[in-house]
Design a protein that fits this description.
Shape: elongated
Radius of gyration: 38 Å
Strand content: 25-35%
Length: 525
């Protein structure tokens, strides 16, 4: 090798790695088990923000609220992708690196393991004195006490199901058995890592093929399983919206049981599921007890009240009539809702912001709901007129009233009017804008529909990983040796020597040796 002299010292002129050498070095680093474990830990840590912070795909409103409430940390975390952790580039990079690391680590090990399985079991060592030997004799009065017969009897006792690989050698007056049980532990280790890759692939596929949607259904109304019918809908990149199975879901009844203290005891939504070409089927959905329709799980996610309101404009024409879902805000089901009336015959468009108190009590100034049941429902609302902004082509939240182009309706004192209405009552709007009638009170149920085709595969991967981990932790690594010798003299006994090679922590190794020795020296019935 050429040498380079620097400061009167000759250093070896080593060859440069070059591009190919550096790539090979990086691949070896990425595919090492140490790096795989580090990446697995990093992936677990990186998933923590996805559980702590609101995520944009699931709750964009909460994300916007967090950013507005935290003017510094909100935009900073948003720039880092913390509000869409599982879809961010850095999380995907960790995921892909872990995936490559596991594959690059496991594939060579599978090759080595396969070649080792095809190699014969090592032969019997010359001396058994260092393998915890135990000695017994088989007398000549046994039906067949030849060394070969003794070894075959012992080999049959092991059985293939025990996971031993055996090697039997026989010569005149001497026979030996070597039983190896080392490959099961490595097989379990490989199975665990293959199952882990299986799970990663299944989870990755689920993000591409799954769908999830939410729908609010008022009692008596129906829902059709189509994208346009969902209140919110999200799906993977490979999901085909045309693959949604057609069915309708009708909410026949909703019951809610509360204790006297107002604590929820039971929620039950009785629905009728109708599929094309089949008879309608009545089912009941409860909390954590979803119903299943064509492989999709339908969860009862929430519920609330839906006041039935009728709005008339300044000309007395009915411009709105129907049940409006109000969202509960506390345990007493104090609920807020919005009514938008764009199609008035006279005057400007109308908008209402309302609060429902199911069991209202008041001291003349303050209104409270003291129980979730609808014992004394009362609606307190304010009204607006102007342009609702519905003609701009920009989607609006049905539970938020955009007041940008609206003006509040004011009373005789010039202040914004705050009105209240009970069931069966009608209240006139200020400035002659019309009237509002509280016709009745219905209920609604919020359903979460989701379908993840990867779940069976994730379950299979989890079971295989558990089996592999159990085998890698508890399968013994040992070799059993059995040597049978007979001098050949008339009436000579066959001397059987058994030994075992196993790690010190294998407490059952000696017992396994003794069982093998007993099987060799005990004649069959």
């Amino acid at each position: 090798m050429a040498r380079v002299r620097i400061d009167n010292y000759a250093y070896p002129d080593a060859p440069r790695l070059g591009v190919k050498g550096w790539l090979r070095w990086m691949w070896r680093q990425v595919t090492s088990m140490r790096v795989a474990l580090v990446l697995l830990l990093v992936l677990a840590i990186a998933a923590i923000p996805g559980s702590v912070l609101p995520q944009d795909p699931q709750d964009p409103a909460a994300v916007r609220a967090f950013i507005s409430e935290n003017p510094f940390w909100g935009p900073f975390l948003d720039a880092l992708g913390m509000f869409d952790v599982y879809g961010s580039a850095w999380f995907t990079a960790i995921y892909v690196l872990l995936f490559l690391s596991l594959i690059g680590c496991i594939v060579p090990r599978i090759g080595v393991y396969w070649r080792r399985l095809r190699e014969p079991v090592p032969p019997m060592p010359r001396l058994l004195t260092r393998f915890s030997p135990a000695v017994a004799e088989v007398q000549s009065d046994v039906a067949d006490a030849s060394p070969r017969a003794v070894i075959e009897s012992a080999g049959a006792s092991l059985g293939s199901w025990r996971g031993y690989r055996t090697r039997v050698e026989s010569e005149e007056g001497r026979a030996s058995l070597v039983a190896e049980h080392e490959h099961v532990r490595e097989a379990g280790n490989l199975l665990f890592h293959v199952a882990l890759i299986w799970i990663l692939v299944a989870v990755g596929a689920s993000t591409l093929l799954t769908f999830r949607g939410q729908a609010i259904i008022v009692v008596g109304d129906s829902f059709a399983n189509a994208v346009v019918s969902y209140d919110s809908f999200e799906s993977g990149a490979w999901f085909d919206e045309g693959s949604l199975e057609p069915f309708t879901l009708t909410l026949d009844e909703f019951s809610a049981d509360f204790s006297l203290a107002g604590l929820a005891e039971d929620f039950a939504a009785t629905v009728t599921v109708t599929e094309p070409g089949q008879e309608p089927v009545a089912q009941v959905a409860r909390v954590n007890e979803p119903i299943i329709v064509n492989g999709a799980k339908v969860y009862l996610q929430g519920n609330g009240y839906a006041p039935v309101l009728t709005v008339r404009d300044a000309a007395g024409a009915v411009v709105f009539s129907g049940a409006v879902p109000f969202l509960p805000q506390d345990s007493a089901y104090t609920s807020t809702g919005v009514v938008k009336v764009p199609d008035v015959t006279v005057g400007e468009q109308l908008g209402l912001e309302a609060v429902l108190y199911p069991s209202a009590v008041t001291d003349g100034e303050t209104v409270l709901s003291i129980h979730p049941d609808d014992s004394n429902p009362l609606i307190v609302f304010t009204a607006y007129q102007g342009d609702l902004g519905l003609d701009e082509g920009i989607p609006q939240n049905v539970y938020v009233l955009d007041q940008t182009l609206l003006s509040p309706l004011r009373g005789d004192d010039g202040q914004q009017a705050v009105m209240s209405v009970a069931i069966g009552e009608t209240v006139d709007l200020p400035e002659g804008a019309g009237s509002v009638t509280f016709e009745g009170l219905s209920r609604f149920a919020a359903f979460d529909l989701r379908k993840d085709p990867s779940l069976p595969y994730v379950l299979v991967g989890a079971v295989l990983a558990l089996l592999g981990l159990s085998a890698s932790l508890f399968a013994p690594r040992r070799r059993l040796y059995l040597l049978a010798e007979n001098s050949g003299a008339p009436g000579a006994a066959t001397v059987v020597t058994a030994g075992v090679s196993a790690p010190e922590h294998d407490a059952d190794a000696t017992e396994a040796r003794d069982r093998l020795l007993a099987a060799a020296t005990t004649p069959e019935d």
